[in-house]
Automatic annotation (TrEMBL):
<dbReference type="GO" id="GO:0042176">
    <property type="term" value="P:regulation of protein catabolic process"/>
</dbReference>
<feature type="region of interest" description="Disordered">
    <location>
        <begin position="461"/>
        <end position="497"/>
    </location>
</feature>
<feature type="region of interest" description="Disordered">
    <location>
        <begin position="1"/>
        <end position="30"/>
    </location>
</feature>
<feature type="compositionally biased region" description="Basic and acidic residues">
    <location>
        <begin position="465"/>
        <end position="490"/>
    </location>
</feature>
<dbReference type="GO" id="GO:0006511">
    <property type="term" value="P:ubiquitin-dependent protein catabolic process"/>
</dbReference>
<keyword id="KW-0647">Proteasome</keyword>
<dbReference type="InterPro" id="IPR036390">
    <property type="entry name" value="WH_DNA-bd_sf"/>
</dbReference>
<comment type="similarity">
    <text>Belongs to the proteasome subunit S3 family.</text>
</comment>
<dbReference type="GO" id="GO:0030234">
    <property type="term" value="F:enzyme regulator activity"/>
</dbReference>
<dbReference type="InterPro" id="IPR050756">
    <property type="entry name" value="CSN3"/>
</dbReference>
<dbReference type="InterPro" id="IPR000717">
    <property type="entry name" value="PCI_dom"/>
</dbReference>
<dbReference type="Pfam" id="PF25573">
    <property type="entry name" value="TPR_PSMD3_N"/>
</dbReference>
<dbReference type="InterPro" id="IPR057985">
    <property type="entry name" value="TPR_PSMD3_N"/>
</dbReference>
<feature type="domain" description="PCI">
    <location>
        <begin position="249"/>
        <end position="430"/>
    </location>
</feature>
<dbReference type="InterPro" id="IPR013586">
    <property type="entry name" value="PSMD3_C"/>
</dbReference>
<dbReference type="GO" id="GO:0008541">
    <property type="term" value="C:proteasome regulatory particle, lid subcomplex"/>
</dbReference>
<feature type="compositionally biased region" description="Low complexity">
    <location>
        <begin position="17"/>
        <end position="30"/>
    </location>
</feature>
Length: 497
């Protein structure tokens, strides 16, 4: 059984004559080349394929992601010549997609390392890994048309493979397949293909592929604002335990966006905050998007986010438009709200939150009205319309309807004197004599308990499925043996004493 191959820090030195070994030895061995790293990763993939261990395939993917910035065309071309047979279909498809470079250095490197390592040709895992490597290289070098062709070819090949050791590579290929079409503005073309792949992953019980493809389909629908279709797919998709934290965070983010559009702000807030909390620290862009949507949702709920939310490390500049928007909502100034919305219109449009900010206008008016009711015991509807800066044809009538709706919803504790055109605010009582502190305390306790339950669920215990259940008779025999052994040890101790 082949053993797991570790990536060496330095390559093995070539044999040299004894007379000249010391004189010609360099002060320090040269660092291993990118091609050497790729060949060692291929050996890890080969070991995972032969031993059917998925963890080795996952390790090879992680090593490749760490190596992607160092990839050059000559390294990828040399690796294809090393890993694939020249007459194979994969080699024929992938080689023309790489940009042509001077191959003199590549040939020397390949010839020098040919005798060191060798790999078994024809393994599906190696072939799919080559597709993944070329696709990553083309996307990183902005060869989007070639990347699209490579992605299509890789998906066509994946449809004919059903191996557990390929599932990890397949899930990465699905992601880059969708990303390549997103970069070329052709996401709508692959929706049917993604649905077919999701059905195939379900039939093959590929849970990692299921959650990856479900997120890709949700992203596809949301890209074209098809929120109803996204919700129908999400509600009817088969349930399974999340295997990847990254995919679970994406799912929570998409779920939060769907809930926000459907006016289910409480559930949306919980999903978005959980996605931002669970996301890796390095995924700064994703966490920024989660925080942007969470801020809007909290404003729609009537909450004002804490200042520390906007001052997080690495997010201050990106969240500045939302900080000014929050300040406008907090003050209740409709004119300031319009100015902020116009100033950062391009930013809100790029974040696809413009339609949500339109909904905030009513919250701004309600906040301003609440401030007015606290400041004045009695005020006319004309003055309310002026202070709210209503720009409609009949501002007094609009102010009256706004106040009436706020009173009905419980946002303002006042009465309207229609005869005199006044709004009379009732005296504010002691807030601690109401149920508001209890409700706030209860929500905090529920949040802490929910976080504790999620932490307990995330714990992983060693599987005991291979152990047979101990019968009552065997348990009695084991306890009897333990008692006899303890008695025997006690007798030996007495003899020694």
């Amino acid at each position: 059984m082949p053993e797991d191959v570790e990536m060496n820090d330095t390559p093995a030195p070539a044999p040299a004559p004894a007379a000249t070994a010391v004189a010609d030895a360099p002060a320090s061995a040269p660092a291993p080349s990118t091609l050497q790293h790729l060949k060692e990763i291929a050996l890890v993939v080969e070991a995972g394929s032969l031993t059917k261990e998925v963890r080795r395939i996952s390790r090879a993917v992680r090593l490749t992601v760490a190596l992607r910035r160092r990839l050059a065309a000559r390294d990828v071309a040399a690796f294809l010549a090393f890993a694939l047979a020249p007459s194979s279909e994969a080699f024929t498809r992938l080689s023309p997609l790489l940009p042509k470079e001077d191959g003199s250095e590549m040939d020397v490197d390949a010839a020098a390392l040919a005798a060191q390592v060798s790999i078994k040709h024809g393994l599906p895992e190696i072939e799919i890994y080559c597709y993944l490597l070329v696709l990553i290289f083309l996307i990183d070098h902005k060869k989007y048309d070639e990347a699209k062709a490579c992605a299509n070819a890789s998906i066509a090949r994946l449809k004919n493979i059903n191996r557990r050791t390929v599932d990890v590579l397949a899930s990465r290929l699905y992601s880059y397949y969708s990303y390549a079409h997103e970069l070329t503005n052709s996401l709508a073309e692959i929706r049917g293909t993604l649905l077919g792949l999701h059905r195939m992953a379900t039939l093959h019980r590929d849970e990692l592929g299921q959650e990856t493809l479900l997120n890709l389909l949700l992203r596809n629908y949301l890209h074209y604002n098809l929120y109803d279709q996204a919700e129908k797919l999400r509600s009817k998709a088969p349930r399974f335990e999340a295997h990847s934290n990254q995919q679970f965070c994406r799912y929570l983010f998409y779920l939060g966006k769907i809930r926000t559009i459907q006016l289910e702000y409480t559930d949306a807030k919980e999903s978005l905050l959980q996605a931002a909390r669970k996301a890796p620290t390095a995924a700064r862009g994703f966490r920024i998007q989660c925080n942007k949507w969470a801020i809007i949702v909290r404003l729609l709920l009537g909450e004002i986010p804490e200042r520390t939310v906007f001052m997080q490390k690495g997010m201050k500049a990106a969240l500045t438009p939302y900080f000014e928007l929050t300040n406008a909502v907090r003050v209740g100034d409709l004119e300031l709200f319009r100015a902020v919305a116009e100033k950062f219109a391009s930013t809100f449009s790029a974040d696809r939150t413009s339609n949500l900010i339109v909904r905030l206008r009513h919250n701004v008016i309600r906040t301003g009205l609440r401030n007015i009711s606290i400041s004045y015991s009695r005020i006319s509807l004309v003055d309310i319309a002026k202070k709210l800066r209503l720009d409609s044809e009949n501002p007094v009538a609009d102010a009256e309807s706004i106040v009436a709706k706020a009173i009905r919803d419980g946002a303002v504790d006042a009465i309207i004197d229609h005869a005199n055109g006044w709004v009379v605010s009732k005296e504010t009582g002691d807030v601690y004599s109401t149920n508001e502190p209890q409700a706030a305390f209860n929500s905090r306790i529920a949040f802490c308990l929910n976080m504790h339950n999620e932490a307990v669920k995330a714990l992983r215990f060693p599987p005991n499925s291979h152990k047979e259940k101990e019968s009552a008779e065997k348990r009695r025999e084991r306890l009897q043996q333990e008692e006899e052994l303890a008695k025997h040890m006690a007798e030996e101790d007495d003899d020694d004493f």
